[in-house]
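note to self: the first set is below, dont mix up w the second
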Amino acid sequence: MQRIPDSYTRAGTMKRSGEGIVLEIGGGTYYLLKSDCVLLSSGQSAGLINNSGEEEGCAWLSPVREAKKKDLVSNLHGRIYVVSWREVQRILNGQVHLAKVLEYAMKDRPGIPPGVPFLQK
């Protein structure tokens, strides 16, 4: 499979918190609870919580940058954000303190809605 080039821009950071991880994106702060990371590992999605404790977005694991690589993918306000799942695990294990959050900007393709990751053979 050949990857069609898309673009990524740095959108924020992710770091460990007492109960999981914190994503700081575009002036907003969002939380992914450590217990929800177990959901991600089993193929389910998890909610991203804002400072008010309300669910404001959704996160799941998906191969975005490469066919076999899993990434933490988040949808917040119609934008797609990506962090390597390896980096998420390293943060949760205390091996690193900070990781980059990238915004995924998909190039327009006929017949494919914007924001849908696409791999071409």
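second set (the one i keep forgetting abt)
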Amino acid sequence: MSQMSTRLPPGLILCAATAGAVLAMAGCGKPSPPPEGPAPTSLAKADPLIEAVQPEPKVVRVIARYSQPDIAGDSIRAAARVARQIARAVQAGARDLPPGAEVITLDLYGVDVDKFGKRTPGRFFESDFHVEDLKAVDLKAKGPAGVLNAGFDLRIDHPGIDPINAWCMRYPHAGGEYCNMAGD
């Protein structure tokens, strides 16, 4: 068998290289987020972390629990998801939102771990959101943590200090307003 040398003209080599680069770049795009599915129809069923919804005059308290010890702000990241799902439920006309409700308070409970490894359940924070702000928030324009920035008040309990600080250091671009409230 004879071996034949195949030489391509320089213009064809450039064309093949350009096509390869275009194909390689097409696969490098930012992945689209997974679809969120249908909007929740009630606050109580908005997210699996929600344990209870307590309607009071003009205020609805939503209690969520993150059951694992926090690692680098993961509980706050989960709280952002809960807040987003609450906003989706409000925008979809949540059936368990009383007609006169003006404020939704999100209470996040988690597991505090001290320097000796002792685990203690406790409340991390409570954050208040105007119902009208949740109705108006553009969920497509805001990232996953964008709803936390729509809050108007944040009260941090001692177990929540480290998780919030860790999250704000890890995701400063996502939680700008929320982290400013935490610093006040």
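remember for set 2: Helices lie at 10-26, 74-91, 131-136, 161-170, 176-183.
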